[in-house]
Amino acid sequence: MINENWYQTAIKEYGIKEILYKELSEKKKEKGSGAFGRVYKTKCDSIGTVAIKKITIDAEVEVIRFIKELKLHSQIKHERIIQFHGISRDEHKGHYLVLEYAKQGDLREFIEKFGKGEFKWEERKRLAIQIAEGLRYLHNEKNIIHRDLHTKNILINEGNIKISDFGLSKNLNGTMSSTNNGVFGMVPFIDPQKLNQTKYVLNKKSDIYSLGMVLWEISSCREPFPGETIILDLSLKICQGLKEKSVKGTPMEYKQIYTSCWEIEPNSRPLIEEVLSQLKSMSLEPVFEGDDEYTSCSPSPSPGTSGCILPDDLIIQTNSVICKRCDSKFTDQNWCNSCESQRFQEDFSNWTSENQSLDELIQYSQLSATKNNTYFEWIKFNQFKDIKVIKDIEDGFFTATWLDGSRELWDDRSQQWERKGPVKIILRRLRCLNINKLKLYLELENIIIYCYGFTGFTQVSSTKSKSTKSYYLMVLKYANVVKLRKYIQNKFPFSWFERLSILKKIVELLHNIHKTNYVHCNFHSGSILLQKDDLNHELEIYVSDLDFCVYSGEFYKTDEANKNNRHISPEILKGEKVSIKSDIYSLGVLMRELVSRNDPQRYYELMQKCLDDDPERRPDTKDLLEELHTFTVSRNSQFEAADSREDVPFYQQPLFPLLPPFNRQHFPPFPLPSSPFPPFYEQPLPPSPLSQPLSPSPFPQFYQPHDENENDTYDFDNFDNFFNL
């Protein structure tokens, strides 16, 4: 079980001290929250007053992060770092880190309490030096980056600095996971490189930038950018050069130290030992004479300033925010909408999908793109090789090598985006060319696998008529994915908290689809894709089959095949209008696939609500998320008890009365041809009436199964069957 194994591992293998929960007082006062849990003040019989940080673990991946946090804490022994005493567990209330208690709160509270008048510069210098000492210990002696340094997690105890909250810290010798690379913390303290590019990996120089903001707050005695209340706007302005201005009375040497930490180019920022040395040797005289207003962005951009009024003492590098070709402001890192639109337009005559609506969608996406990788391309089919069926998905999904690759490398000399091919991608066949539905792939970011664009080819039939037919495929970013249905079959049994974690992510995806007023209409375990890393941990969950989506309030036509699919809601089968509650019924069927013989009563009751015949009585996604949150946060005893009993998978037991019984036969293997298409090799493509044909013949390299039989053939006339059209 999750809650037992990690705890014993932490104690036995990492030497973490266990503090019995009975040693902790029942009286606990909440003091705030850390990266992965809430923080309380209490008393410990063997230590005295301590802070305990409650940890909520929803899934195995969070257990791993928690253990890493324990390991980091166990390695750190320094007077400038909050002391880690051990771990404790209560069977009913959860798990805790037991930490040193900082009596005077965090640095921001400390600054606000004393204010400018009583906060002498000698004291400010002393605290700044102590912060730098703590960060130097992390960087130089432990090779750790904090990644979330700001004035709310720098604590004060007995007048001395204590750096805390390593829930987001990272040992540089470890592997940087996708979760740890996300944007966390308070925006003014985050490295602009990270705000500009989410894939940017935070490093020691990112901590230096954060330290610069901390030093500025010590000098100004207020939080940065108090007038900026919209996070996204503030992030963009910071990327465009927005910075706080030095306040009157700041020692000039101190000002020079923190402004050097603010350099846009990370390599231009000092090392922590340089910062510490300069702080120790700095003089408090002379001081800066100026006002205390922060740099603001004007409504009318001025050439060379990216629309921001920058004071002379804080001139920044503008190469990253101004286009060298036309002096326009970048809408994203190295993305000039004016220049890119012109390049796209000049290339319009060089390609066509041979479908006017699809051409217009691609052109629309390119002209409206405000950053790279947010538009579609038409990619000729001869750009792809080594095309193979994805065995874990099969119906219409293929891996391939894209020879040129996408435009992802910025060339500063030519001021253009260069391609980085060859690159592995996924091809997915399109059932239809409904342009409104294809637009969803632009709107629903992080719900579907990223779509680079489209490709296609024309085939000639083997009949006397020699008729032609065009096939279209989506070009998707490569991800090691497997259908949820297959994952359940292969991994069962797995813990209830892992199942709930997966289900919660699925509901979040469905919630985002419903916010667009679309209904998926084909929501089932075969349309949910899980991305796996090399260690077979589930990192991301995606929704496929957006081709089936319709607007809420419209009619959804079901063919005879779909009428037998148990995930289709009763109102759709009756020919009534669809609503978001139609997807909720489908979700209820999916929930049934996650249960076993020992399903907890609370889960069963929620599932029954989703499967109610009356759509109005079914919960919506918001209700579901709230209910699932109580399942995981409270660590309900029903789920722990279910994990301790022997499980039988759903396909080996009868369903409850609402659904007819079924077994493994409802997950039949998808038949695949065992050889390429010999009859098609000799088929010439008809001349295209357009200047640019879809593609030369994709064969013989098109289909390369792993275990083909040379004597088998595949009838070209039945090519539709191969794509499951």
From TrEMBL:
Among the Pfam families in the record, one is Pkinase
Q: Which domain of life is it from?
A: Eukaryota
Q: Which InterPro entries match?
A: Kinase-like_dom_sf, Prot_kinase_dom, Ser-Thr/Tyr_kinase_cat_dom, Ser/Thr_Kinases-Pseudokinases
Task: Name the segments for region: Disordered.
Answer: 678-713
Biased composition regions of type Pro residues, renumbered to the chain: 678-699
Q: Which keywords describe this protein according to UniProt?
A: ATP-binding, Kinase, Nucleotide-binding, Transferase
Q: Name one GO molecular function term.
A: ATP binding
Q: Which stretches make up the Protein kinase domain?
A: 25-288, 387-632
Supply the name of the protein: Mkk2p
Gene source species: Rhizophagus irregularis (strain DAOM 197198w)
